[in-house]
Amino acid sequence: MENKKLDIIVKSCEDKKGIDIKVLNINGLSSIADYFVIVSGNSSSQVSALANEIEEKMGEAGYELNNQEGKNSMRWIILDYSDIIIHIFHKEEREYYNLERLWSDESNFIDK
Fold first, then answer.
1. How far is CA 70 from CA 5, 78, 83, 86, 107, in A?
2. Is residue 86 within 8 Å of 37, Cβ to Cβ?
3. What is the structure's pLDDT at 99?
4. Helices 44-60 and 4-15 meet at what angle, rounded to 10?
5. Residues 78, 93: contact at Cβ < 8 Å?
6. Of residues 60, 51, 48, 52, the one with CA closest to residue 5
7. Which domains, from first to last, does the chain contain?
8. From the CB of residue 52, how many other CB atoms can be counted at a distance below 10 Å?
9. NCBIfam families recorded for this chain (predicted)?
10. Using CA atoms, how far apart are residues 96 and 32, in angstroms rounded to an integer?
């Protein structure tokens, strides 16, 4: 990947053993962001650890978090970095909501 933000986010997910990390290029398909990153955790504590690692590493690199949702539930956390929105799911919620199906065109997925 060429995008430094995406590199930091994906590395943070890998460092915390995130499951099934997907990067979707939604540039031109949506006005809300250029990329979605979707990752799962096996437990609420892993979901929290993934969010915390991303926030820490992005902050160290000078990127500001615009908004976050879901930190209280630890089942689905959204981190908004303007052009990149990260969806961190508990694996059961990810299976239920299946965001990937909404962006089912495989050309939208980026190899990490």
1. 22, 6, 19, 12, 29
2. yes
3. 79
4. 140
5. no
6. 60
7. 4-110 (3.30.460.10)
8. 14
9. rsfS_iojap_ybeB
10. 23
